[in-house]
Amino acid sequence: MSAAVGKTTTTGLTVLTDDLTPPTNGGARLRVVSAAPDTSALDVRGPGGSPIALGLAAGQAGPYRSVPAGTLTLSASATGSAPTSLSVGVGANQVITVVLVSDNGTLAAQPHVDAAGPVAVPPGPVDAGYGGAADAHGLLPDLLLGALALGATLVAVVQ
User: Fold this and answer.
1) DSSP string for residues in 100-157
2) CB 3.0-4.6 Å disulfide test: which of 16, 114, 120, 142 passes with 95?
3) What is the pLDDT of residues 100-128, one digit of tens each?
4) Taking the mean position of all CA atoms in its chain, how far away is CA 71?
């Protein structure tokens, strides 16, 4: 993933390395990218005050963190500032990047799903049938036609 960060007069391109390792146990994996050019280093905390990214400078991405699926309230604050509460929806089995931007001087969260798996993994094997071009009636008609063709060939050879 690459991101253009900075003020419009000094925009630069930052390359961010994605880690699409699936989350475990129906949870999610989340990271935060600071793309708000008018903020100092940000401290971002998740549910219960757990650290998501601390000291995150503009243009940087924090590490991926395991979080529960659902609506999360993130708390983001610049050094010496009051925290801003940000609500972010995170689906089960998603890997998500939350980009923090400045919206008229206020921090705002823009969630982007990097990868998503099934909400529930189906049990057992997948019934795939005989393939896309297979006859819907199965293999028996093909075997019968083959036996008839072989029989006709043998009759023609014997005569």
Assistant:
1) EEEETTEEEEEEEEEEE--SSPPSS----TT-TTS-TT-SHHHHHHHHHHHHHHHHHH
2) 114
3) 998 887 889 999 999 998 766 667 777 76
4) 16
